[in-house]
Write a structure and sequence with these properties.
six-stranded mixed beta sheet, five-stranded antiparallel beta sheet, globular, alpha+beta
């Protein structure tokens, strides 16, 4: 039965009103978030990272609707064959339609991975942010806007938590970090998709989002849906917790600033003796003071081991070195020094193959063989059968010691490292810089010189783990 004409008109009116209301609600919500967090000034030109996905398309369109001056930047990583070119064409058509200038750049991700040792995910992130930064530095824009939303923030919370972090990691992403802004951080993925549907905006979908190769996708596609099944609205509740943690972090930072004034002199000397004597939690206090300099909790523990049971520090002349600075331990003080003039300090620390000073990623056996034939294997890289990752192992990075022996690759039995040094005509000064990587007390790599036959790549190897060693990162006790 056909509805009366007036009823049809009323239904259409309600539909149109609802669409306009939902559209304006999203726009108004974004505008309020921008205002409350002082994200944008009227004179700013905003560089929008545009992938073509729902988040970035909604971000570009809502900023354009709000009257802000925008330009867009699209990265083509050429990792998904024709789909990558499809995304670029879509972004060009979108920007032409709404009158936005589009910048594009092609990237060779595989070359970047071989040069840096980063994973695909991290290499892409580094490439795009470096390019975006260069655009800002060239004066083409004053702010970079990225399309992170509530679910992205919750995923980041889980990633940081599972890595092991403090309150700084658990506070997730914030609306503004330097000249990077996140105007959609108060919106859900559902709100974004509803806004695009109402405005008639199309977007492209990255097919790899459905794959669970990457940690973020595992959290997005498996873990969070499972949690939501048993705890409805868990994502919003976790996001609320993140907001509380951000407030806690601000309070914590205020207290941290007071500790810095209390224990750091105008010339930068850190009075560890007073920290150890006066503070109920000296380990955390010292960590908060020196972590911005590039030091981690292992460094803190090594420093505090220099103190005896009576809170006195009999150790002097020991250096602790990060990427950014060197600290000399002298009579209970940590004194900032020029890294370039410091001697190499003793090292003996547990490490992970995917964290500084190492980085690692896997390739196929065929790719390895091609690199080998092309003479592209590096002495600063270790090539292992990826099965080493299937079971837990304890990796130690340390100095070489007299009596150390290795089971060299391609040889039977063992050989003294001192003999290897003699054969290679390594000087006494060079020996000070030699680093050893052990796996369960077996030497698997004399870095830059010789590898062992433990976990060697063979014809039966399914995939090859490439471990890179960064000499800049290595001086971390």
């Amino acid at each position: 039965m056909r509805l009366p004409y007036k009823m049809l008109v009323f239904r259409n009116f309600v539909k149109i009103y609802r669409s306009l209301f939902m559209r304006n609600k999203f726009v108004d919500k974004t505008a309020a978030f921008i205002h409350i967090n002082s994200l944008i000034k009227q004179q700013d030109t905003i560089l929008v990272g545009l992938s073509g996905g729902a988040d970035s398309v909604a971000l570009l369109n809502v900023l354009h609707e709000l009257g802000y001056k925008c330009i867009a930047a699209h990265c083509n990583f050429h990792l998904r064959w024709e789909e990558s070119n499809r995304d670029e064409k879509f972004c060009r058509a979108l920007c032409d339609r709404i009158g936005i200038k589009l910048l594009t750049k092609d990237f060779d991700v595989k070359s970047a991975m071989l040069a840096t040792g980063e994973s695909v995910e991290m290499a892409c992130r580094t490439l795009r942010y470096d390019w975006w930064k260069s655009i800002l530095e060239a004066g083409q824009a004053s702010l970079l806007a990225v399309g992170h939303h509530i679910e992205d923030n919750v995923e980041t919370f889980f990633i940081n938590m599972l890595r092991g972090c403090g309150i700084q990691g658990l506070k997730g992403m914030i609306p503004k970090s330097g000249n990077i802004i996140r105007p959609l951080l108060s919106a859900t993925r559902k709100e974004i998709e509803e806004y695009l549907s109402i405005t008639g905006m199309s977007y492209v979908t990255d097919s790899t989002n459905a794959e669970n190769e990457y940690r973020r996708n595992i959290i997005r596609n498996i873990i969070l849906p499972q949690i939501e099944q048993y705890f409805p609205d868990a994502t919003l509740s976790i996001n609320k917790t993140i907001g509380y943690l951000q407030g806690n972090y601000e309070l914590y930072s205020t207290y941290e600033a007071e500790l810095r004034r209390k224990y750091i002199s105008p010339n930068g000397r850190i009075d560890i003796s007073r920290i150890v004597t006066n503070e109920p939690y000296p380990r955390m206090v010292l960590f908060e003071i020196i972590s911005p300099m590039g030091f981690n909790m292992t460094n803190v523990d090594n420093i505090l081991r220099s103190f005896n049971g009576e809170n006195a520090c009999p150790v002097s002349g020991r250096y602790f070195i990060s990427d950014n600075i060197s600290l000399l331990l002298d009579r209970g003080y940590l004194i900032p020094c020029d890294t370039s003039i410091n001697p190499i300090h003793d090292m003996n620390q547990e490490v992970s193959l995917d964290r500084k000073p190492f980085s690692s990623f896997s390739i196929s056996l065929k790719q390895f063989e091609d690199m080998k034939k092309g003479g592209k294997l590096s002495t600063q890289s270790l090539y292992l059968d990826s099965k080493i990752l299937k079971e837990p192992h304890k990796f130690i990075l340390r100095n070489w010691q007299p009596g150390d022996r290795i089971s060299p690759f391609g040889m039977k039995g063992t050989k003294l490292l001192s003999d290897i040094f003699s054969d290679a005509k390594i000087s006494l000064e060079q020996k000070k810089h030699i680093r050893i990587l052990t796996c369960d007390d077996n030497i698997i790599w004399v870095i830059g010189l010789r590898t062992s036959r433990h976990f060697a790549v063979t014809a039966k190897t399914e995939s090859v783990l490439i471990v890179n060693f960064n000499t800049t990162d290595s001086d971390m006790s």
